User: What shape does this take?
Amino acid sequence: MRPFIACRWDASRVLGVSGRYTRASISACSGQSRYIHQAAGVSESRNSTISRKFPVKGAHTANVATPISPKSSQLLSNHPIATTYRALYSTATSPKEPTIHDVFDTTSGTWQYIVADPSTSTAVIIDPVLNFDPATQAITTKSADALLALAKENGYKIDKILETHAHADHLSAASYLQKRLRQSQDHKPPICIGQRIEQVQKLFSQRYGVPKSEYKQVFDRLLGDDETFTVGNITVKAIHLPGHTPDHLGYMVGDNVFCGDSLFHADIGTARCDFPGGDAKDLFQSGRKLLSLPGHVKIWTGHDYPPAGRSEPVPWMSVHDHRELNKHLKEGITEDEFVAMRQERDAGLAAPKLLHQSLQINIRAGRLPAPTEAGQRLLHVPLKLSGDPW
Assistant: This one.
């Protein structure tokens, strides 16, 4: 089945700042193929055809008539990037396939998703982001408000907020969204995460001095391995994907898997495994689990950090393309080779810039710390000393 693709973007419009859409187009053209093939040393096919339609108010849509090449027939291209980028993917002619909106936060390099059942307009939000400025310690809600505006614009009722894991590189907007959505719809969407989150909460609450009252039972639903639930008439399956963190989940919806921080774009490979509880062997097995799915299944990543030679972030690649092109997990790479590579690479990585702030907020499910007697909400940041303490 060919996907129907539409794009509508411009954060200022989403937030009501501007009165017009920025003109943009999204097309399955040779640009995307070029980025993928440059990373893998594969030549491009020039035998591609595209049919286009431009009907929607202020938006462009592209209906792909013929694959671009045998190696990138599922891939998007030519993404115009703003602070917040939004795209719509729908295979709604199948009752079991969702409508997917991807929203890219450029500051943290995070992909956020709204996944909807087109037959009921029931939807979930996956991995929403709070904006945080480490220079001023200011938390703002621009990205989260864009998600709310997108849901309202499309008439969606948000049924659940799904986290793939306790993120260490951005603050979760889950609790903020839950509060706002409770005020605007007749349903308080539960915040859901994997059942192993409790061991992560215990570890980092001790490290940062977070009181039990601020992290115990803050998630509304803990999902078990392979547990299923419905979003409207669509079934979602939670898949345990450990490696980056022990609590990590993916969510399978129709022929789509939202894999969080496990697989990245083919020219990046995979996520780091050096956080407490992370394990390169586990990540290799999680990657192989994902790449054992049928080749046409789309794997939607949690982050993208385009390297030299690729200027735009890409939200998904097919299983087929990952098998052939993923620099860390393509066919032929053994577990021992992967573990050695991943451990060597992780040893040279710096800590995420928002590591301490993110973990303290995210083990609270995105809730703010309780105020002190003076009315301040505080996070702990460890000092780095060059010698003995005095």
About this structure: The chain has nine helices and 19 strands. Residues 1-84 have pLDDT under 50 and may be disordered. The longest helix spans residues 335-347. The domain at 4-362 is CATH 3.60.15.10 (Metallo-beta-lactamase; Chain A).
